[in-house]
Amino acid sequence: MSPEWNRLTPAVRVQIEAFQDAPPVRLPELARALGVSVKASTLGPGISGEIRPADDGGFVIRINRHDPPKRQRFTVAHELAHFLLHSDEIGNGIEDDVLYRSSLSDRREQQANRLAADILMPGDLVAEAREAAEEKGVGDVVLYLADLFAVSEAAMRIKIGQ
């Protein structure tokens, strides 16, 4: 797990793990449990998602309805990571484009990406699924795992170190 995962309180880790019981991780339910609403929206060119304070005092994530579903999932996880790691810096909102750039530093964007990967692809579940795929003789293990976890092949390659 990433250093960002280890920065979370044990209570928050347990809360996240409750939604990581089987792939794909139950992301919409996790967001609700954390008190963050998720809305599909038409966002500006190149903007995949944003997190902003909501009128009710909580936070709302808006994802680009025109992005592919796997991209939308990663965006939700990325914005949840900002909520968990950087909520004191959200202010009027953080927007992330396809290159994961925002008004925050590259370091914070990398932190959000690493935690998003931990949320979407928990190491133990990935290892179990990889072992099962190899035992079954699955031809393209990365593609199989990416589909199983509803993430991009690129994200899965990074996760399993290929």
Task: Give a nutshell description of this structure.
About 50% of the residues lie in helices and about 15% in strands. The chain is of the alpha+beta class and about 160 residues long. About 5% of the residues have low confidence.
Description:
The protein is an alpha+beta fold and 162 residues long. The protein has 2 domains: 3-120, Orthogonal Bundle (Arc Repressor Mutant, subunit A), CATH 1.10.10; 122-162, no CATH class. Helix 4 packs across helix 5 and helix 7 packs across helix 8 (153-160). The protein has helices spanning 3-7, 10-17, 27-33, 69-86, 106-120, 123-136, 141-149, 153-160; strands at residues 36-41, 47-53, 59-64, 94-97. It is built from 8 helices and 4 strands. Strands 1-3-2-4 form a 4-stranded mixed sheet. Pfam families: Peptidase_M78. Residues 51-159 form the IrrE N-terminal-like domain. This is ImmA/IrrE family metallo-endopeptidase. It comes from Sphingomonas ginsenosidivorax.
CATH topology of the largest domain: Arc Repressor Mutant, subunit A
Tell me the structural class.
alpha+beta
Order of helices and strands: HHHEEEHEHHHH
**Helical percentage:** 40-55%
Q: Which range does the strand content fall in?
A: 5-15%
The number of distinct β-strands equals 4
Strand order of the largest sheet: 1-3-2-4
Mean pLDDT comes to: 88
Q: Which word captures the global form?
A: globular
How many DSSP helices? 8
Uncertain stretches of 5 or more adjacent residues: 97-104
Q: What is the CATH architecture descriptor of the largest domain?
A: Orthogonal Bundle
Largest sheet: 4 strands, mixed
Please identify the top-level CATH class of the largest domain. Answer: Mainly Alpha
Count of structural domains? 2
Report, as a whole number of angstroms, the end-to-end distance: 17 Å
Radius of gyration from the CA trace?
15 Å
